[in-house]
Amino acid sequence: MAHLAGRFIVFDGPDGSGKSTQFRRFAAACRGAGLTVCEVREPGGTPIGEAIRDILLDPRHVEMSVRCEMMLYMASRAQLIDQRVRPALDRHELVLADRFISSTLAYQGTAGGLDASDIIAVGRVAIGDRWPDLTVVFDVDERTAASRLNPLLDRMEQKGAAFHRRVRDGYLAQARDMPDRYAVVDATAGEEDVYAAMCASVRSSFATASG
To answer: From CA 76, how far away is CA 29, in angstroms rounded?
Structure first.
């Protein structure tokens, strides 16, 4: 796993895809292999980002517009890049992120109706040139995903089956459009099978990049 030092990998996918479980397991394995790992989550990852996260996910904020959502996610992301991600990469650490701009493109873009070009334009301001080397999408249908969610849903999880179907479509469209920077893993399988498929995808992606 030494070739992953200085890389920026995002784990992403619909709510209930199991990505966070796989994220923790992969991070532990990388540390066990001797890598220094910087783990971050979105929104959040910094004191400012965590305050923004509380606003974004609070079920009371039903009046929040999609454009406001997008800008708040980007504000959290800008702070995360400056405070955590860029310094870690400068130290040649492996940065693992639980969600990133791929989530904004899927949730506020494909599902929410914002134009992808607008999101990308704001993203360039928020993160500059520090885009992920690889985004692993844990793909799961909305029915399976819903069965895995906590009954106490946050504001984003409460948006309904049709919304989450569009979210899934958004992730898959990104992977089709950028196959060199995305890997899709079938997350409907058991945890062990998903982990094995994810590790194989990561190996394959960076073998291609270095070869």
So the answer is: 28
Element (H, E) at 40: strand 37-41
- Reduce the DSSP state of residue 157 to 3 states and report it: helix
Rounded CA gap, 86 and 183, in Å? 23
The answer to whether 81 touches 131, Cβ cutoff 8 Å, is: no
Q: Which amino acid is at 121?
A: A
Mean pLDDT of the chain: 92
- For the chain, list the domains and their CATH numbers: 2-210 (3.40.50.300)
pLDDT digits (tens, 9 = 90+) for 23-65: 999 999 999 999 999 999 999 999 999 999 999 999 899 899 9
Assess whether pLDDT exceeds 80 at residue 151: no
DSSP string spanning 56-102? Answer: HH-TT-TT--HHHHHHHHHHHHHHHIIIIIHHHHHTTPEEEEES-HH
Is 63 exposed, middle or buried (CB count within 10 Å of its CB: 0-12, 13-18, 19+)? exposed
Rounded to 10 deg, the angle between the 66-80 and 47-57 helix axes is: 160
Please name the residue that has the structure tokens 């479980």. 21
